Amino acid sequence: MVTRRFDEDEPVLPSNPSSPAHRAAAPPPAQRPAPPSPNAPKKRIPRGAARRKGPYAHIPRTLTQVLNEANEMVVSGDLSDYVPLPTGFVPLDAMIGGGLRNTELVLLGGPQGIGKTITTLQMARNVALNSGHYAFFLSYEHTETHLMNRLLCLESVNPPVMDLGGGVRLKDLYGLVTGDSDRPPLRAYNSGSGSLQAVLRRDKRTAIALQRMQMYSDRLILVKASPAVTTLRAIREMTARLTDATAGKVVVFVDYLQKIAIHPLRAADEAEKVTIIVEGLKDMALALGVPVFAIVAADREGLKSKRLHLYNLRGSSALDYECDIAIIMNNKYHILSKDHIAFNPYEAKKYRDWVIFTIEKNRAGRAMVDMEFQLYAQYFAFDPQGQQVQQQLIDDKIIEQ
Q: Residues 90, 383: contact at Cβ < 8 Å?
């Protein structure tokens, strides 16, 4: 893949050289490039490059220019600004207009252990598998190898089929590799032709999982991010290179937002740091024309509350203002009303493995919509079919009917 620098893109000027918009957009005479030869091949401008990249990315443009540019994109077959990218979580996609959209920032919050990383990695997998796009997954919490092992477990149950009979847990996977199972260990195959893939192919369950994972492995890009190295600027630079190399077919996933470094900038406190980060991610989404999906940690008070909300996320009010969509996760069992007359503790146990996703902000559609998905934590997977919550929400609790 060939990457291009931002400053290689040339601004698109209005057709009328005497118009005010032309004079405002044109570079100074000393910087204006020489006119191309009539026989020179026309330079191809990547999708949205003129309006989103380079030193002239924020030039004033008339509505006619905007319309003409959009028309050229549609005529050329580029419908990326109109077609959403499904996350694969069916009822969630239906509520957010079909999926993720270019230039949008989506935040996902929830308490510890609720399945935020599972959700995000599964969505990244779905994007890379089903849309032909590249998923760029930055994790400040896990190594690339650990994420790969999680994906093998997920693929063993094959969402949305959820074939639990062929499921492989993480300890099963480790047992196959180390020999703590009824299979020979990896070292038994290290006579020259042995490999991790050889071990995985010798077990039917992992062989199928590996085959499924390889269907999108070239389009899922993993980074073990570091709070000391992987700065906001570095994320933007990496995303820019990927955007150029893939003609804009990139979705960025960040796990998680508060760990992004802002060096060389300095913040007085965490609220100011979060403001810088969330504004930077939103600007990156707008400037590069890609969706950005970020996990956000909850604050201490939010972790103590019975039900987490958008205002319980750690940081500043910029989280609410800057994002286009905010999704909050809560365990269904924990927010069932225990004092309701219909509450049955034995019946309610089935809700322990269900997670409620609440769309608390949605600029393009309905907000405060609740849907639920069953979590299969041992396989690092949700059943993406899900359903809307049937119980009534009263006083931040779900009341059994």
A: no
SS (H, E, C) 49-86: HHHHCCCCCCCCCCHHHHHHHHHHHHHCCCCCCCCCEC
Check pLDDT > 70 for residue 34: no
According to DSSP H, which parts of 158-269 are helical? 170-178, 196-202, 204-213, 232-245
Report the candidate in 118, 67, 127, 73 with the shortest Cα–Cα distance to residue 100.
127
Task: State the chain's mean pLDDT as an integer.
Answer: 82
Fold of 90-399: Rossmann fold (3.40.50)
3-class SS at 202? helix
Find out whether 111 and 78 touch, Cβ atoms under 8 Å: no
Instruction: Determine if the peptide bond prior to 264 is cis (ω within 30°).
Output: yes
Query: In this predicted model, what pLDDT tens digit does every residue of 313-372 receive, in sequence order?
Result: 988 788 989 999 999 999 998 887 665 545 566 666 778 899 999 999 999 888 888 999
Tokens 């389009």 locate to 219
AA letter at 352: R
Query: Hey, which residues does 139 pair with through a beta bridge?
Result: 224, 255
Distances (CA, A) of 241 to 62, 78, 103, 278, 289: 29, 20, 17, 21, 13
| Prediction pTM value | 0.80
What is the mean pLDDT of the segment spanning 18-44? 45
**Domain layout of the chain by residue ranges:** 90-399
